[in-house]
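Changelog-linked ticket: guanosine-5'-monophosphate example.
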Amino acid sequence: MKTVEGCLIIMSGPSGVGKGTIRKALMNDTSLNLAYSISMTTRPKRNGEINGVDYYFVSHEEFEQNIRKDKLLEWAEFVGNKYGTPAREVERLRALGKNVILEIEVNGAKQVIDKFKDDQKLITIFIIPPSLEELENRIRARSTESNEVIEKRLNKARNEMKLKKHYQYIILNDDPNRAALEIANIIKNH
Ligand code: 5GP
């Protein structure tokens, strides 16, 4: 029997909105058959992050080489660092029937939406916070970064919120478990 190709699920939303927590809740539901696409980044590793689990942490040179060799499905710059999705792994997982989640920012998402616009199995989701004030508190509370970087992330968050119209679904993160359930239903209905 031929394996049915899995869905490609883009999950975007401003930094600090809780995408990671929602994703972890989703991954716990094994009936969804999800796989997380691990991105490549030039950003320094934060405390507790693991190479090959949270990201592939690479040098600027290595990242550039991946762009040149056309190994990235999409990539974008975010507050001074580059982030990208390794293409082959996404293809491999989808071919195995896995529903692959990309947790990426809006410019990269735009590239994927353009490339896969005829793919019925593309699902695009944008997560919004209950309010911008709450988002600001969350970014400040969790950040180990300098004030300058925090301000840049906040600015970026305000701009990203304006681009939510490009997504099929807009999900409010008032509670990560509730938001995850809503997304689980979207995936099941697809
Ligand atoms: P952070 O530094 O907080 O881990 O990530 C910053 C932003 O980059 C987040 O919005 C995150 O979703 C996004 N991001 C992570 N990986 C990728 C990727 O492979 N491509 C793109 N375009 N954005 C990514």
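Closing comment: Example verified and attached. The chain is about 40% helix and 25% strand. The radius of gyration is 16 Å.
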